[in-house]
């Protein structure tokens, strides 16, 4: 059994419900959840910007403690502390075999199902309930395939472990894996929410310079400075591209979009200098299209890169990030805002919509 917040209709409040967890078999793992972040991807579904099968338990940025494992599980034992991956790789497809777990074509996570096509959750009448991206962390327990649960040291706080499950791995991975930023490269980040802040920490880690942060919220900009941004610009600055060009000496080597808006996606290549790259991390509402200037891309040798999950392999990158946190190189506590209980999740989604505060952590042990 798990107590969960269930979304039954886009745009409506979630409702609390007791749900049945699927019985363990094969490589399934039952995790007692300790913390969940609230990410804009949850909001995309809650607001109806992404279609999803309802009813659904949202939440995909979570951590917990393994409670029980199926007979085929080999890497985890009860009591292990885990961060959850929202992209459980199949391990068999061409992308997985090439080491690109973040592009797996065999995953059922994006259908919000277990690898065998069943839902992990059902209601009191036995009707299926979907778990967002196969996780459904707005609950006190979940059942996931082994490849979605990665052991991390028990001394990493639950809230930090939860953020490693999405925003941190996405943002730090965008810098280290997708863009491969080098010390001294010039950079700009548009959108300094949870994911953008993790990008900033990644840029500070590798010694990018300058690091230009762009947001509409003064609070977010001030926070960006404390995370290592060297210059702050407003997203509604009509001369944004000119200001970035003057700070970076002709345009950034790497520009990151971490919002998912057509306007800022279209703007991104204009912030990049000759031979630079525009990295798309934000994910727009379904159907959004953004214009580009092909002549400029060709003439200036600019690249546009898509970035799913920070081009990360969770089994490799979660422990790597945990080590960087423990050594003090990635001060991830600085990303955490208020802590709320599970029944406050709608308020947390409201804060996210209004860009109020930092990342909310749900304390699922409360
Ligand atoms: N690529 C991936 O694998 C991946 C993973 C996680 C999240 N995402 C996506 O990343 C995006 C960001 O997620 P988040 O949780 O950080 O969201 P968030 O709501 O915490 O942050 C968005 C930020 O953008 C700012 N913003 C909005 N409009 C702006 C503008 N015109 N100019 C400048 N700043 C502006 C807001 O003030 C806010 O600080 C979402 O689309 C989410 O779905 C992608
Ligand atoms: Zn997320
Ligand atoms: Zn695969």
Automatic annotation (TrEMBL):
Cellular component, GO, one term: cytosol
UniProt GO molecular function: S-(hydroxymethyl)glutathione dehydrogenase [NAD(P)+] activity; zinc ion binding
Keyword Oxidoreductase: yes
This protein's record includes keyword Oxidoreductase: yes
Xref: PROSITE patterns: ADH_ZINC
Alphabetized InterPro entries for the sequence: ADH-like_C (IPR013149), ADH-like_N (IPR013154), ADH_Zn_CS (IPR002328), ER (IPR020843), GroES-like_sf (IPR011032), NAD(P)-bd_dom_sf (IPR036291)
Cofactor: Zn(2+)
Annotated keywords: Metal-binding, NAD, Oxidoreductase, Zinc
Biological process terms in GO annotation: formaldehyde catabolic process
Domain Enoyl reductase (ER): 11-362
Domain of life: Bacteria
Entry's family note: Belongs to the zinc-containing alcohol dehydrogenase family.
This protein's name: Alcohol dehydrogenase
Organism: Actinoplanes siamensis
Lineage, top ranks: Bacteria, Bacillati, Actinomycetota, Actinomycetes, Micromonosporales
């Amino acid at each position: 059994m798990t107590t969960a917040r269930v979304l039954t209709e886009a745009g409506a409040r979630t409702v609390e419900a007791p749900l049945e967890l699927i019985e363990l078999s094969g490589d399934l793992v039952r995790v007692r959840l300790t913390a969940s972040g609230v990410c804009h991807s949850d909001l995309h579904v809650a607001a109806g910007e992404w279609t999803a099968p309802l009813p659904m338990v949202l939440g995909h940025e979570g951590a917990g403690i393994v409670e029980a494992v199926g007979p085929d599980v080999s890497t985890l034992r009860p009591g292990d502390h885990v961060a959850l991956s929202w992209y459980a790789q199949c391990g068999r497809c061409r992308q997985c075999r090439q080491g690109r777990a973040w592009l797996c074509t065999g995953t059922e996570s994006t259908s919000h199902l277990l690898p065998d096509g069943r839902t992990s959750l059902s209601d009191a009448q036995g009707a299926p309930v979907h778990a967002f991206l196969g996780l459904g962390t707005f609950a006190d327990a979940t059942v996931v395939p082994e490849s979605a649960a990665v052991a991390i040291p028990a001394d990493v706080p639950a809230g930090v472990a939860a953020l490693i499950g999405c925003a941190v791995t996405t943002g730090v991975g965008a810098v280290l894996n997708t863009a491969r930023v080098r010390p001294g490269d010039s950079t700009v980040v548009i959108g300094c929410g949870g994911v953008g802040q993790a990008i900033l920490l990644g840029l500070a880690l590798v010694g990018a310079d300058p690091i230009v942060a762009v947001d509409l919220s003064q609070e977010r900009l001030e926070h960006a400075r404390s995370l290592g941004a060297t210059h702050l610009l407003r997203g509604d600055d009509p001369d944004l591209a000119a200001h970035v060009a003057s700070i970076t000496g002709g345009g950034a080597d790497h520009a990151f979009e971490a919002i998912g808006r057509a306007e800022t996606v279209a703007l991104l290549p204009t912030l990049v200098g000759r031979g630079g790259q525009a990295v798309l991390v934000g994910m727009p509402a379904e159907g959004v299209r953004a214009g580009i200037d092909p002549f400029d891309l060709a003439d200036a040798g600019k690249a546009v890169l898509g970035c799913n999950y920070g081009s990360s392999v969770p089994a490799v990158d979660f422990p790597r990030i945990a080590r960087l946190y423990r050594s003090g190189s990635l001060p991830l506590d600085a990303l955490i805002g208020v802590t709320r209980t599970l029944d406050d999740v709608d308020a947390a989604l409201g804060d996210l919509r209004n860009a109020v505060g930092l990342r909310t952590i749900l304390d699922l042990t409360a």
